[in-house]
Amino acid sequence: MCQQTNKAIKYAAVIGVLVIIFVLTLNFKIIVISGQSMAPTFTDHQIVILYKQNQSIAKDDVIVFVHDGKEYIKRVVATGGEKVEQKNGAVYINNIKTSYPAVENKDPFVLKQDEYYVIGDNYKNSNDSRELGYVPLSEILGVVLQ
User: pTM of this prediction?
Assistant: First the structure.
């Protein structure tokens, strides 16, 4: 009887490990950073873990999204309902000047729910919402765990 119990415990442990691995592969992905647009937070070739959910994205989250077939990693600086404008050499969010330089003057717009404005931490060397426009929720792969 003891041998059967040990066998059942081992079987349950193996099944448990397989379930954990399955859940982890469904919810997480390993990403290798390419480029310096998020330096110094993340550097070229750094490995990070992506939580593959996109339902509760907040300001200051670092996200990975796909735009025109290319993956980008950027920080969320504005979310749905916020007004964004590029004028006088700066990005303004809700009429407040940020430290982010504008690429060019652009008319103000209000982000809809499930739209995000993102900028790289190394904003002087970043291709982000200032050029690409807002990021819709449908393009977001997930949030980087920090």
Answer: 0.83
